[in-house]
């Protein structure tokens, strides 16, 4: 079984700071990490390999420094890592990203065997669109299975796969066909700690690096900024609320004082809360 | 949205001009995909009808509801309801194959409709279903899609200006799809206010065939297990929400939040770290990566008010913050602030509320 995992290296955005005067992002020294949601996809891929044999290929489109995260993914036990990196890819929105990733996955198929399953995370913490997975599926004509919480069964002979997928009001059990794309719901598994031998292999492994041309991109205008139908026109900091909170002192009977104060300020709340509690 | 103040130098292609290709000029009108699962319309769709109405009026075009579902009474009811939320007309693809949501069939229905009737703007809810569908529809149509918008507007040239948080919510950015149609955007539930529902007669409904038979669809639904009502939280739609953060200090203290919430008929919620620590289940998280809420009253205890939390609660009518640090960022957007130890104040609030609200309970027993 050949399994490809799309993984992104992202800034650890908890630590992103915005310059208070110029409103620009201060990127210096912001550490990068594997997109946390993608860890669930990697783990799910490794579990499938454990059951059915085969290989796991990790694919990232990103700057040359994304090699760090790929190497990290290898320490978990992935078999190979492909870094798709080219200045032509810079500034890609989701549509352009899916073009590049889909092209690279085709090439991976030619080089290492066509994938049965392509995994993505649920979403990234920087792009945060959850759209790249569906886009890749559409471009490659893969069955699309998003928000998957459990892989129930794989029948390699029949080429079928049964999954449980989160839907708005419940859980759908689906039977689909491979090749398929699965986006993995968060929290469905726990990332393993890689073995020592995997760590040693990873340290020495060669990361496969492909430019747009290497990956077989035929139309460079579909990549990066040029291939992106969406245009970011303005980046700005959220505007502060004109008024700040009014501080209230509650004295020695704080509970009653608060309730009095609240109902004085928002008289309608008294009857609204009354209605809400009547049902209890 | 319109403050042109300190617009930074546009990056990259941002200076690009609109040169809409001739064949795309025919794309007119604003569409809202009315999401329904088993005949139950998702409230986000009505919220989007409110946002869509504003865009359509600014552009001087029609607002259409798009309904895709089984050929039955429930689907018809959703179509009728869309007029009560302001649709000028509705498009309908009804087929029993569409009873359960599946990507293949719904993507086909939507892309066929778009190609046949050519909307300039297409809005969908950023729900599980909406995100699954929007990504494949946009890729099939090779157009732009802006996910999880917090504001929608049209600029002077009539282009959709879609604003969304970026970089983990620390900044906002406004995104355009200038030279492609339709301009697609998704919006999360509760980000837009719910418009008023006004009873209206059924308007024009344009039916379009699905053009698929069951055998064409690869993915089969083996079963559907609806969530039990008891496990469902109504957090996003609650009128009153009480939430706790790391300032509570321990999972035991989170009980104080639950107690106050149940006393005042509120739903309870929390900040993200409490979910990560396993104190509270993830469906209770409020904020950018959790639920967006729009209650009449929001009480936040021991929550610092990080931007990712703030974006989820800004739609609240009235925010009360309890925090020991008078400089906590939450006081920048709360209406009322109390600088004190929440662990001590919360039980006093619960007690005072139950005293004040209990006459109502007596009313109920008497009646
Ligand atoms: C990509 C990304 C997405 C995120 N999404 C979300 C999200 O959806 N929702 C979310 O909430 N966060 C989210 N976060 C996390 C967010 O950045 C903050 O870290 C988080 O909201 C802080 O939680 P907190 O306020 O509970 O804890 P803290 O920031 O640690 O604040 C605790 C507060 O409690 C106060 N306090 C301490 N003791 C007491 C006491 N006894 N009584 C009263 N007050 C007390 C302190 O003064 C402090 O202000 C996200 C972060 C990232 C990077
Ligand atoms: N540049 C990228 N390289 C590889 N995979 C990506 C990239 N961007 C997004 N993905 C995958 O697509 C998923 C959804 O991303 P997004 O649409 O940005 O929320 C992520 O969890 C990744 O698995």
Q: Would you give an account of this structure?
A:
The complex is a heterodimer of chains A (280) and B (367). Chain A is of the alpha/beta class. Chain A is globular, with a radius of gyration of 24 Å. Chain A has a 9-stranded mixed β-sheet with strand order 11-10-9-12-8-1-6-7-13, sandwiched between helices. Chain A has helices spanning 36-52, 67-75, 94-112, 132-140, 196-204, 212-215, 254-265, 267-278, and strands at residues 2-6, 9-11, 17-18, 25-26, 32-34, 55-61, 80-84, 117-121, 143-155, 160-167, 170-177, 180-184, 208-210, 230-236, 246-247. Chain B starts with 29 loop residues before the first strand and ends with a helix. The radius of gyration of chain B is 23 Å and the shape is globular. Chain B has helices at residues 43-59, 73-84, 103-117, 128-141, 254-263, 272-276, 307-313, 342-366, and strands at residues 30-34, 36-37, 40-41, 63-69, 89-94, 121-125, 145-149, 151-154, 160-166, 171-177, 183-187, 204-207, 220-226, 240-244, 267-270, 297-301, 319-322, 336-338. β11 (170-177) of chain A pairs antiparallel with β13 of chain B, so a sheet runs across the interface. Residues 6-8, 35, 37-38, 41, 59-62, 94, 97, 101, 120-121, 123-124, 127-133 of chain A line the site of adenosine monophosphate.
Q: Which descriptors would you attach to this protein?
A:
heterodimer, A: 280 residues, 2 domains, nine-stranded mixed β-sheet, B: alpha/beta, seven-stranded parallel β-sheet, 8 helices, binds flavin-adenine dinucleotide, binds adenosine monophosphate
